[in-house]
Amino acid sequence: MNAVDPTLLRARRSWYVYDWANSAFVTTTQTVLFSPYLTVLARRAACPDQPTGCTRDLSVLGLPVAPGSLALYTITVATLLSAVLLPFVGALADRTPHRHRLLGGFAWVGATAATAMVAMGGDRWWLGVLLALVAVVSLTCSLVVNDALLCDVSAPEERDAVSSRGWAAGYLGGFTLLALNLLVVSSPATFGLTDEWAVRVSLASAGLWWGLFTVVPVLGLRRLPPRPVLDLAQTPDQTPDQTPAQARSLTAPFRQLLTTLRGLRHHPQVLRFLLAYLIFNDGIQTVIAASSVYGQEQLGFSSAQLLTTVLLVQAVAFAGALLFGRIAGRLGAQRTILGGLGLWIVVVLGAFGVPRGAFSTWLALAVLIGLVLGGTQALSRSLFSRLVPRGAEAEYFSLYQAGERGTSWLGTLVFGLVAQLSGSYRPALVALLAFFVVGAVLLTRVDVAAGVQQAQRGADPVR
């Protein structure tokens, strides 16, 4: 094996730290505390006289919304906003020599919004919705840049292992902060806090963690050797009769988005993988986003129990991501992902059957989730990185991120609607099985070898 250049190795280690940084927000805020706490605030606003037994709807822009579905709808709106913005972020990231600056800018905007969640309280559900929209959209924008950087810090044959190590670092970071927050939420009086203030301080800590540790990749990735990028005065869609000024015009990002979308026809394996990933990852992300609400509302678990659950998931996921990376080295990423999707089906069926209050059974499922969570996502990222055309990594990863961790839209919408119409989260959970089954079937239709050959030719011109 050829020795890795020391400069590249240091930059790669810095790149790992961004997963460590943003995972604190994903675990403490998105996965555990935000949805249940926003539900409490929404019920308090809808039923100020009796919030614990509230059966009234909340009026949101004139529309009736069940308090228990507000957090899921918030994620849905954030995803739709991301779907509009991310392709332009990808086009910009492919045209700047300063990707690390873009990474830091998006991350610090999101971290500021996440830290400001400490101001949530009373019946200020609207503040939580606004801050979540800013934080989630900023997170997904930063992940477009971060995923594109995977192609800068590793060769194609290294990406399964490098991507898995990044995810493992993320789970370790999420585990570390979540363990600290578990102490705060479990024993708030020890720290001079009320139960509600313990949640608010924990939400703020996730934003601070995200922002502070982002300094490491922003500084460390400056060491990367210069990468060839398109001149900012030129775009791939610039025709011979266009001037550089026209290419730099306000309409250039829109033209480039259309060019990227039309270019997918020259990379059919990318399109097939995106369709499969969008579907099965919607299922994964909805399970993650809805798990805390399901555990609290359907199964009656406390915030401390939910924190313990996610803490266990994070601990197991650290080893699971590395394990799946090794399995992929023998079986290939595609087969390994398919095996992981089979285990996700087992998880959903198992969660449906968990009796109310059966915490030990719930924890057993948490171990299985941790085993497959990081592996399926890390390998999906590395597999996609080998299919995208050279020179357009960020643009294609912007499409990829539309179905990534904080951006499920169809899954959360289906889950929220079924829960609201049925009055129970159990049938809503069963509805998610379709995402894993359909996604797995579509993934089997991806010809990875053909996709790699197409990617090596670069971004074909649209004809």
Automatic annotation (TrEMBL):
Coiled-coil region list: none
PROSITE patterns: MFS
Domain of life: Bacteria
InterPro entries: Atg22-like, ATG22/LtaA_families, MFS_dom, MFS_trans_sf
Transmembrane annotation, as ranges: 70-90, 102-119, 125-145, 166-185, 197-221, 270-294, 306-324, 336-354, 360-380, 406-423, 429-448
Stretches assigned to the Major facilitator superfamily (MFS) profile domain: 269-463
Keywords carried by this UniProt record: Membrane, Transmembrane, Transmembrane helix, Transport
Keyword Transmembrane helix on entry: yes
Statement: the UniProt record of this protein carries the keyword rRNA-binding: no
Main localisation: membrane
Subcellular location: Cell membrane
Protein name: MFS transporter
Species of provenance: Kineococcus mangrovi
